[in-house]
Amino acid sequence: MFWKKTAAASAVAMMSATLPHIANAQEAGLDEKINQAIAPISNVIAGTMFYSVPIGGTAFPLIVGWLVVAATIFTLYFGFVQFRRFGHAISLVKGDYSHPEDAGEVSHFQALATALSGTVGLGNIAGVAVAVSIGGPGATFWMILAGLLGMASKFTECTLGVKYRNEYEDGRVSGGPMYYLSKGLAEKGKPGLGKVLAIIFSICCIGGAVGGGNMFQANQAFQQIVNVTGGDESFLAGSGWLFGLVMAIVVGVVIIGGIKSIAKVTEKIVPFMAVIYVTAGMIIILSNISMIGDAFAQIFVGAFTGAGVAGGVVGALIQGFKRAAFSNEAGIGSAAIAHAAVRTKEPVTEGYVALLEPFIDTVVICTMTALVITISGELNSGLTGVELTSAAFASAFTWFPLILALAVVLFAFSTMLSWSYYGLKSWTYLVGEGKGKEIIFKLFFCLCVIVGASMSLGPVIDFSDSMIFAMAIPNIIGLYLLMPVVRGEINQYWAKIESGEIKKVK
Amino acid sequence: MTDQPILVGYDGTDAAQRAVEFAGTRATAVGCAIHLVYVLEWSPYSFLSTQELEERHQRRTEELSRAEETLKPALEALNKLKIPVTSEVRYGHSGELICKIAEDKGACQIIVGRKGGSALGARLLGSLPLTLVQASPVPVTVVP
């Protein structure tokens, strides 16, 4: 009897779960077709990238371990640089060491802000929600830990990004993993290995650009738009391709048409949106200050007991680590491309500045999202992704989903612009520069916007994660080999500070 | 002859041109030098896209040479009047920078032109003459 009852119940649950899909498939022919065409490919890629070993009864993806082990090694090798030099990093960003004659050049603040606008985005809003909905509140703890360790990875890669950048005769500056892998390893007597790693990195970076930097963004932006316009009843539901098309045209106008004004407007609004988001989060947290103790208790208890989470402690840990890496991109190598343009004679200064990036992104903004979700009690609502974050904020401000929808679209847009640049740099590294070659990549990038908006969340997240994480393999191999170069840079920099050759100008 | 130069804010506009002419007659009368300052508005905290980061150094070089070109006619005109003249192009906040340079050079006064926009526009967008009148360490002349 009992068995029959549960069986009946699960049958009903299954039907109700599948029915809307069938209905959607009939209505939304194009979306469903795109999904069916792409999903098998993304499954294969994700399956390979996330090759897992069983630990404590849960599958542990080796790639996540790869990132965390690297971050830990860099943390130890550089003697907890993220804590010891935190103050120095702030002082560099404030411009205390910037020479007045360099006014008009890219400042530390500008390099950091641009790099941040590429990382702060949906990872902080949707990614965190995915982490806590699967991994429980405990995932937050591991996310913060991964964020703190990731600061050392970011320090390493951005120092190298500046040291081995290309400065062209016409004054343009271009840097990133492809350059430090090829030039740095050539210096170490391994030109062949460097070249191969640089090429692998470039290929993965193109994948990451169209995956996490594009399709995931388009997908989540569309989800949120559907949500605020009435959910399944929305006139847009099932018309992802249409939303994607509009978004692709806007992206195309900026990156192909070179219409700077749209990018300019986005750039002005995005920091503003970030401030609104953080302020709203702080208000919710402060007005529920009595629940903060409880929320942190849930986070700590969840982190070490894994209560109520599939896979227990390891399940929470994997989710936390994965989302932190996806959000702050430490060890991935992408930020080194943006940071490389800074005006400085000392590469290590940009390394110090860059270590603030995972701190702001993960330790501050992601943690805030996780706290709001935990406090709101929406965690057991069965929602995930941006819908969960939206519901959590709506429990305090009913109008917030609208603001969030706008923020999500704008964050998605600015992240796409940043990643289109990272992808383009990798593309031109592979095939050489030239107008025609660049247009091909840009057109392909726009096409992916449409594909991303049309697909369902699962395959998109899998594909995005796997391509972004794939960048970490060649990048971190290179970082290990070039670690001593960074140490050399640190030593000569601090010798100059001690001798008074470099001193504060303010 | 005094060694305190007159500092003139210059950006190539008609207003700046009038300021230079006025400064020329003053400098001849007093017998002092003129120092032209061309400020390119810049904040190290403004936001740039990745593309702009890459091209920043190139653009800066172009902007500087364009500014030097713009200064040339004014320098030549003052040279013709046998007024000793120097110039510099700087990046920064125009008000703050001109005040600072006035102090460093020990200028006797600052002369700037005024574009003659509405009072509301000046309030909203900020105006160099207003800023200087408020903050300058030396006398300021605003040429209409």
How would you sum up this structure, described in words?
The complex is a heterodimer of chains A (506) and B (144). Chain A is mainly α. Chain A has a single domain (29-42, 62-499), classed as Amino acid/polyamine transporter I (Up-down Bundle). Helix content of chain A is 78%, strand content 2%. Chain A has helices at residues 2-27, 29-49, 62-77, 81-84, 86-93, 108-119, 122-135, 138-163, 177-187, 191-228, 240-255, 260-287, 289-305, 312-328, 334-339, 347-354, 356-376, 385-394, 400-431, 435-454, 457-470, 472-499, and strands spanning 52-55, 58-61, 166-167, 173-174. In chain A, strands 1-2 form a two-stranded antiparallel ribbon. In chain A, strands 3-4 form a two-stranded antiparallel sheet. The model of chain A is unreliable at 1-27 (pLDDT under 50). Chain B has a single domain (6-143), classed as Rossmann fold (3-Layer(aba) Sandwich). Chain B has 5 helices and 5 strands. A 5-stranded parallel beta sheet of chain B has the order 3-2-1-4-5, sandwiched between helices. In chain B, strand 2, helix 2 (50-80) and strand 3 form a beta-alpha-beta unit. In chain B, helix 3 (94-105) packs across helix 5 (128-135). The two termini of chain B are 27 Å apart. The interface between A and B is medium-sized, with 33 and 24 residues.
Note the topology:
The complex is a heterodimer of chains A (506) and B (144).
Chain A: H1 2-27, H2 29-49, E1 52-55, E2 58-61, H3 62-77, H4 81-84, H5 86-93, H6 108-119, H7 122-135, H8 138-163, E3 166-167, E4 173-174, H9 177-187, H10 191-228, H11 240-255, H12 260-287, H13 289-305, H14 312-328, H15 334-339, H16 347-354, H17 356-376, H18 385-394, H19 400-431, H20 435-454, H21 457-470, H22 472-499
Antiparallel strand pairs in A: 1-2, 3-4
Helix pairs in contact in A: 2-21, 3-8, 3-22, 5-16, 6-16, 6-17, 6-19, 7-14, 7-17, 7-18, 8-9, 8-13, 8-14, 8-16, 8-17, 8-22, 9-10, 9-22, 10-18, 10-19, 10-20, 10-21, 10-22, 11-19, 11-20, 12-13, 12-17, 12-19, 13-14, 17-18, 18-19, 19-20
Chain B: E1 6-9, H1 14-30, E2 34-41, H2 50-80, E3 85-92, H3 94-105, E4 109-113, H4 119-125, H5 128-135, E5 140-143
Helix pairs in contact in B: 3-5
